[in-house]
């Protein structure tokens, strides 16, 4: 490519002919095009450097040190750490007398220094909580055999059905499932904790094998959660990466406030989303991932928190794009603000609804103007995509009670993300199947405020004794959505 050979120490000579002028103009035009390409590339790289959890789908743990400092840059209040003056105190409530294991009495001296007798009128309880010395319990089952005195045929006793055929009872199998699925310990840590806390020595292979029957016993409860969550009126869906060795799979979640159902799949596409949703016909709340878009548009709510992050990215650009992004961002934040006020008012008042309808019209108008203004560049394409998705952001107006964010699903996935970061990945197909089952049980029990260990122990006891698990979780029935009055 031809370039102008200019010396900075002196001005270039003026062209003397028309042909030279044309060559200079052509070279300057090419140089201007190259400069614009370089400038666009620099702006793109600067935008990538500015990306963080506040303006993209990047998790907070991957933020740069600068972004973390900005996120944590709150002004100091000048107050000391800990409880503040006027803050209500929290004290441990006393255990009822019938639940106390031992009572020890301490009486005052029977006679005062003045010579009088002391009459006891009451006492002040002081309860001390401690852990007992832990020891495992062993039951030896002796199976006798004998021979017939006439024919010599051999006869042997048999174990009752409720006696485990292996060396681990239901409490131990449930405890291992709790340590791995609830507290995310590795098998080596479970092995070490068994020996240190209980004095039990089991190999890694035996601990791993103990989870094989547990996976089968969890099946009926896992299916119960899946069927119930697909009958809910409102459900939240999300997905995150799941690794098996070096291969990338996906963990999908379909959740409500009381239930959480997980599924592992090799794909992040519409087929996997369809397998997760099944026959779900309620209102679905998701991020803007296109795999969910086969769900009917009039019963699909997009997350406004994700939208605000997308608009933060546009607002961070230079020039007219940044100005348009700022206006869209203000409209989105006002929408979330009045949407929360409308939900907190339990929807009888049409004042907030009228404001939301005006904001809806303003938001569409700003998007249309920005899309027309920026044409086919990055900002224009983003605005046109938002216009295509526009109805899915406002489903909460037609169906009150629908949340404006997908926090319910994201909170359900958070324990798994931590598990994935701190422990080994899944190493087998069995691990891919076990993790969503144990996560579904753990998260659902937490939301129902049911003890995970006792639930696991009941499931293991039934599985060992009867071979079939009839236990079911007390899942709630779907509740009708509130009805809103139309905007006046």
TrEMBL record:
Biased composition (Basic residues): 68-82
UniProt-recorded name of the protein: Transposase, IS66 family
Pfam families in UniProt: DDE_Tnp_IS66 (PF03050), DUF6444 (PF20042)
Entry superkingdom: Bacteria
Region (Disordered), start-end ranges: 46-94
All copies of domain Transposase IS66 central, residue ranges: 165-431
DUF6444 domain: residues covered: 11-92
Compositional bias of kind Low complexity: 53-63
